[in-house]
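Example complex used in Figure S2.
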Amino acid sequence: GAGVSQSPRYKVAKRGQDVALRCDPISGHVSLFWYQQALGQGPEFLTYFQNEAQLDKSGLPSDRFFAERPEGSVSTLKIQRTQQEDSAVYLCASSLAQREDYGYTFGSGTRLTVV
Amino acid sequence: EDKVVQSPLSLVVHEGDTVTLNCSYEVTNFRSLLWYKQEKKAPTFLFMLTSSGIEKKSGRLSSILDKKELSSILNITATQTGDSAIYLCAGFNFGNEKLTFGTGTRLTIIP
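Predicted assembly (226 residues):
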């Protein structure tokens, strides 16, 4: 596609509910990143994929967070048993390669509100 | 742990003014500094700086990196209401190949 597409745009979840956030990267982009952006903060790294391999998940805040990219294109970020502190915008970015000079293209994000 | 600090946190100016946004970084294995503009939600790329002292320009926006001072500035001249946004800077660590973002500067341009 022309850009990075994320869905849903908005998600309201009751505390304890599981959610799944989808990212559809630019076709042919090898690298895919997930970031979490809390209100008034900059994006914080969650995890990184190169094709289908999850090479770095050091930023995932707890074992309730799980990400996958089984066929090396679309990725899903799953949050189990959501809590209020999970409320944030979840940004996905893709790139031709991991090097920053290939450019990261961000999606518009999913705003998750846990009530 | 890598750290990027931006100042000011917010700035309100009148249309036509010139603004300077600041970014300082402490990034291990630093390779480059990137500036993004964030309106609504998706950050959009502005500049990537790798060499100290070389200014990059795009229209009314310009940016320069000072590796000695571990800092960068983003200048916007003759500001317009469309420049209202959050401006993010991020440092790239080539050791762990991660971008670390600052909290951003929220710029508001009053007509």
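The interface with chain A takes residues 4, 6, 31-32, 34, 36, 40-45, 48, 50, 88, 90, 92, 96-104 of chain B (CB under 8 Å). Chain B has a mean pLDDT of 95.
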